[in-house]
Amino acid sequence: MDLNAKIYIAGHRGMVGSAVNRFLKKTGYTNFILKNSSELDLTNQHAVNTFFEAEKPEYVFLAAARVGGIMANNTYRADFIYENLMMESNVIHAAYKEGVKKLLFFGSSCIYPKFAPQPMKEEYMLTGLLEHTNEPYAISKIAGIKLCDAYRAQYGCNFISVMPTNLYGPNDNYDLQNAHVLPSLIRKFHEAKLNNESSVTVWGTGAPRREFLHVDDLAEACCFLMGSYNEEGLVNIGAGEDITISELALLIKEIVGFEGTIEFDHSKPDGTPRKLLDVSKLTSLGWTYNISLREGLKRVYDEYSAQHLVN
Ligand code: GDP
């Protein structure tokens, strides 16, 4: 991408899209097309077609998605599959029709089977049953990958797919019912500290293992792939290391400085037992992560606590 290329970031206000935008700006890119959901409803095919015809973006980062943690995925099952299928179908088809030079689609590590061997390689997609709690979301993301590959095969479109691991960073969702585990625990420990509470409740058993990547690392990896990777299939983006939810809780407790105890609510689901990406494909292409989990957590906690000085 040359520095004045016209770039459309779908979902630029979300955690992923805003990180891509920050990274590209820092690198010297200036020619962005950015529309929030009230200006452009990506589930509306006519609106998306009209937008692409008028703007004719050269490059597209498709980061717009309905996303959430284990409870949100499990509760809003219809919304998660419907909205994601509509957004990705509309944007990918319009990108084909208007001759977009390259499109990058964001998937998710939940596209892999619930009991996939660990760490999970790209070729494990569609080799087993999915985790029930986020199956509708995962099906929509698998459809997105297949859309990119089908438009590449039939029409020669340079559309690529990346599978990020669990992400965290600026513009994350901290709503306790709908958020992912990492922002939820930051909020829970922070509020417990401010309120002098004696304990914090962590959902499930604490035994599941998850991998976490700072979204600024993801943005860097995606821009690296936008410049260098032109194949069908998918590329995992992660750190290649995971920890248990209990260990994550202890680390966040320490960084927040909470002195009470941790309790586990066994009535809440654990979800997939382990989700660790095999990142050897990305490593062999020439990219590895920079921000350690401890360093990344300190950064997000500094940002979060500065905005939430009182409960
Ligand atoms: P998942 O990776 O799709 O399962 O989504 P989450 O990030 O929401 O959950 C990851 C794991 O953390 C699951 O085992 C949850 O039960 C566990 N967990 C522990 N405490 C919390 C919490 O406060 N919020 C969320 N969302 N998950 C939690």
CATH superfamily of the largest domain: NAD(P)-binding Rossmann-like Domain
Strand order within the widest sheet? Answer: 2-1-3-4-5-10
Number of self-contained structural domains: 2
Radius of gyration: 19 Å
Q: Any ligands, ions or cofactors bound here, and which?
A: guanosine-5'-diphosphate
**Principal-axis shape:** globular
Could you give a quick summary of the protein structure above?
With 311 residues, this protein is of the alpha/beta class.
What keyword list fits this structure?
UDP-galactose 4-epimerase, domain 1, six-stranded parallel sheet, 311 residues, alpha/beta, binds guanosine-5'-diphosphate, globular, three-stranded mixed sheet, 43% helix, 10 helices, Rossmann fold, 13 strands
